[in-house]
User: Fold this.
Amino acid sequence: MAHGPSQNFFSRWLFSTNHKDIGTLYLWFSFAMFLLGGAFAMVIRAELFQPGMQLIKPEFFVQMTTMHGLVMVFGAIMPAFVGLANWMIPMMIGAPDMALPRMNNLSFWILPFAFAILTSTLFMEGGGPNFGWTFYAPLSTTYAPDTVNYFIFGVHIMGASSIMGSINIIATVMNMRAPGMTYMKMPMFVWTWVITAFLLVAVMPVLAGAVTMMLMDINFGTSFFDAAGGGDPVLFQHVFWFFGHPEVYIIILPAFGVVSQIIPTFSRKPLFGYSSMVYATASIAFLSFIVWAHHMFTVGMPIAGELYFMYATMLIAVPTGVKVFNWITTMYKGALTFETPMLFSIAFVILFTFGGFTGMMLSIAAADTQYHDTYFVVAHFHYVMVAGAVFSGTAAVYYWLPKWCGRMYDETMGKVQFWIAFIAFNITFMPQHFLGLAGMPRRYSDYGLQFADWNMVSSIGAFLYGGAQLLFLYNVIRTIGWGKPISDPQVWEGAQGLEWTLPTPAPFHTFSTPPVIK
Amino acid sequence: MLKRAKALFLGLLSLASLLFAGGVSAESATRQLNMPQGVTEVSQAAYDIHMIMIWICTVIGVLVFGFMFYIMYAHRKSRGVTAEHFHENLLVEVLWTVIPALILIVMAVPATTALLKVYDTENPDIDIKVTGYQWKWQYEYIGEGVKFMSELRTSQDEIYGREPKGEHYLREVTQPLVIPTNKKVRFLITGNDVIHSWWVPDFGVKRDAVPGLFTAAWAKTDQPGTYVGECTELCGSGHAFMPVVVEVKEEAEYDAWLAGKKEEAAGYASTIGKQWTFDELMVKGEEVYGRSCAGCHQTNGEGIPGVFPALKDSPIALGPPAGHIGILINGVAGTSMQSFAEQLSEVEIAAVVHYERNAWGNDVGDIVQPIDVLNFKQSQ
Assistant:
């Protein structure tokens, strides 16, 4: 080994250009943000525990819903998968590090500033952003608190970080694969991340454009989104969702990748339909660009537009279905065991598919007239975001943590965490389907008495689900500090791939000389 | 971490308080789980396609998850199975691409028919303009000269738990929209400030109220009754507090109601000239303030620092009446202080200005009469 990490704590973590250290930074940062966004969710659910305003004022409530969405999407889920990409992509393609290590450092270290800026608005006069994570104009422009400028600056920084991270991943995968590692031999996680990175590079500038137009409207007298000045509030929605819809696939595609690594391992059987998985992922990414206005079915589009966006959206079910069928067929005639990562992955397949069903229902524009902006939508996207992205992220940590730190996590505690999370998740979000269908709109700080029962159930589930995350944190810390040491490179019996040929724990530098690919 | 602990603690606290209060949820006997079928062709169409989708998803779900659970039972390593190694099969891969695509094509047919119904807004019998304000609705019967605001009637005391919550908590308004049975009513929906969305589930009507744009929706029903809806696009802190209430009346009853409204509009002119006393204006003003102003400026007049300015000790409230009236009539550009000229009558504006100048320790002591407001409007 040439040389290890710097012994100085500050120079090791602040100046790091090592993909593993930066991956670790990303993962801890995202977990911190996950707890912060979770705390906001707890405030929301505590207030909604009963009808009436008990704990907070409506002004603060809308800041909580907004910050919960922003922090979870941009602070928790996206950085978590970038962290996994940093750790795993070089190890999976036989590269010594990421292609652009200094940019890697920069793309991480601007993130804490972005979120410090964003979160600090909560303590400023006027309060934090209060226009929802979708920040529709003119609520977010003419009618926004002055702190919206901090929000815009924060979003710009996050976007810059994401773009740099994506360029790094694309450059790494294109240039640093070990000899013989052809594109169609790459692990699915790498494939899904390359496609995600292209999505990010394509749509992050669109988001930057949207917030810049807001900035101009607010401070420099333009009227992009102000009808009184010749602009159009609906234009904002088109621009936002042209970013926003690919964004949700940016969140879910790496999760697909993780699950496609884990299910074959614990089925002891290769991934079924590898090439169709790659094509399905690419199709989903392509479709994500041409369906954006299905988020705007009630905005009053002409019927031709509405029909087009409905048909295009329904199409997404095809490649998504292919992926689900492939995962299930991978398990078919395997030799299954149910360690914690596998449990989370199976739950992912079931709950994500459930979220996919409600997604198909939402694609039907006439029915969406009733679903739109109700708790039915909230339930739908939490089934795909939480049971999708968060469950798969949790699975990934349990799956690779022993390789990262050379210590085994506590399996019993992992399984307990899984079952609490699984049950609590469903207690939280299943009733929200009923609430939405019965007529409760989202982002409501207060509601009529007919919604009281299910809101209470949902709140209790949410507190439980929050508690399960603390158990997760404890289990991870316990593993890193005091877990049972292991040294077998092959941590899991059925695991395939280059990362499992490396020693356990993975040394600071790996693949200084490229591995030989069969 | 601390925040989370605090939130959890507060949650437990509210649970405890609930137990002591004897349970709020006992009142909410209706546990509706599914989408309402509603009372119009459109709501029925939405419900039908919703149920078709639920059944298709249920069948697919039972098959897929059933197969999955079978695998999880039968192909466990602990049963002594050894894994096979196949990883491709062109036939099944083509099948499970083509079959879902065919199902989608079949689904697209009823989905299209239903959507055509939603968009069938031509040839209405009655046109009603619906305007979303922060945080209330205005209804205008086009061509009839009838126009009024519809605001939440639930009191702040009920919302903040200082009074028990009534049966119609957050589902009651000052003046509901009234429409007749068996007439095709078209709603022309727009927004005054931010985007709102006008939703009546039982009509299957939900259209965004976008400032500077009109969207259209329609309803025709033969079932009289009261139908409650909501605002469904985030429009600020009062988003949850601007319900939609529609009363459907038999045609004769509707005609009588409309005639009454027209008379009311004509009779109103006489109250403007009347000289009101200090106390009359205070009573009326407090009522108007609670309805139209307290949502932002708060019941105690202290506002919310940095968002909504305080009226207590404000130089405008303590200054000359013309400046104060001007703000209500014209609003303040670029802020959420909207113009109330169209929303409140001269009597209401006079009363609320008077109230703000003489409440919470503000003691200007002068009297603002409705005629002053009218003169101000005419001098502009």
